Amino acid sequence: MPILQADRLTLSYRRGSPVVRDLSLAIEPGEIAALVGPNGSGKSTLLRALARLMRPQSGTVYLDGRPIHRQPARKVAQQLAILPQNPTAPEDLTVRDLVARGRFARQAWWRPASQRDQAVIDWALDVTGLAGLATRQLSTLSGGERQRAWIALALAQEPRVLLLDEPTTFLDISHQLEIMALLQTLNRDSGLSIVMVLHDLNQAARFCHRLIAIRDGRLYAAGTPDEVLTETMLSEVFQVEGAVGRDPFTGTPIFTPLQSVRGRNGSEGSPDAASAGAQHAERIQQAGNYHAEHR
Questions:
Q1: DSSP 216
Q2: Are residues 54 and 127 in the same domain?
Q3: Are residues 112 and 60 in the same domain?
Q4: To pair with 294 at 20 to 30 A between CA atoms, which of 97, 217, 229, 283?
Q5: What is the pLDDT of residues 83-128, one digit of tens each?
């Protein structure tokens, strides 16, 4: 049974035009899934609905087989955590104090933190590599450290599902890879189900089990990176002409953009670009063969 499911969701703001239309998807226990699509396609809106932060105009979100809006907010918070794009907290708050806020969903308001609470906070700090920074104020952290602190807060809820909206935005490439590797480790070691909005298609293909492509608020395709990251999808969803090859180190599909085809009304693109794409894909494959032969 899917741990998180959307059944024919239609979402809109203030009764305006629908942002998401009749969209259904299922997230299986223990998988990492990426929502991909161009700006304005409805990815973040969908994520908010999956987190019970937005009530659908029609359709239903199910958490562990039960309608999410029929479950108490505290119970939902004990099973599902969300990290939005730009979370905020007082800058003088310490890392440990921030992470401790993740225990609110499991604490009675009149009781002090228990030994169990402290143990979970210690674990969240340790698994995110922040144990040595626990007494530091948020204002002193780098972008990557700050993002790991927010992930630690979410982990302190002990969720079964973690939702993240563009978790690598504004980070340099080193910190991006650090965050993605951390999420992959959490998934592998604890079975945490993860759904995130990502703009980097190559990172999505490398670190995620499934890609869910959205176009104009509707589901375009869902499947493995090999099934979804195709040149046809790139053209029809992102309006980009590009070459898809094989990463010589990870074996996952890798995409190189060549040119925009926006406004061409279905044009197949220029022959020169198509030829360049084929040549590039061939070079990627040759590199992969060389790497495999010389391991």
A1: T
A2: yes
A3: yes
A4: 229
A5: 999 899 999 999 999 999 999 988 876 677 789 999 999 999 999 9
